[in-house]
Amino acid sequence: MKWLRLLVLILIFANATTFGVQAGSVTLSDMDLLFKSNPQFDVSLLEVFEIEPNGSGIRLGRHYGELSGQRVGPYQFKARFKNAPASAKPLEILFNTTWHIEDESGQRWEGDPPPMPTNPTGKLKIVERLVSINLQGIAPSSGGSSIPPEETDPKSPVQFLN
Hints:
Strands 1, 2, 3, 4, 5, 6, 7 and 8 form an 8-stranded mixed sheet that branches. The chain is mostly beta strands. 13% of the residues lie in helices and 37% in strands. The protein has 2 helices and 8 strands.
């Protein structure tokens, strides 16, 4: 039995240190600035969906120094259409972002993910921009597609995935 506990601890530790990033909790109110980062997202999702107040994002690891522990996208939240029956299967809303690191002088470090800055001037910050929203778990109805007509526009930042 001791070896089983040891194996579980090793697996947990190995998973937590992979790539220096982990899942981290984020609240819907934490997302306000992100929603304002891209004027294409001028529709209020809260008018259409009941979004659970807590979701998850990527948590930066120790190798990001003073930025470690901060969250970046993609962010994931569970939601339901407003007025949907309680038995309705929840959807997943994914908020996809791009991000980079900047220092006080405006020097940028970019990449996917960006490397930890070398020789920054002053404090570092994460600059993040919302680039698309994916909805997962929407099944087309028998009378046609449940995907709005706006989705036929290939430039649309909103993507509906089944």
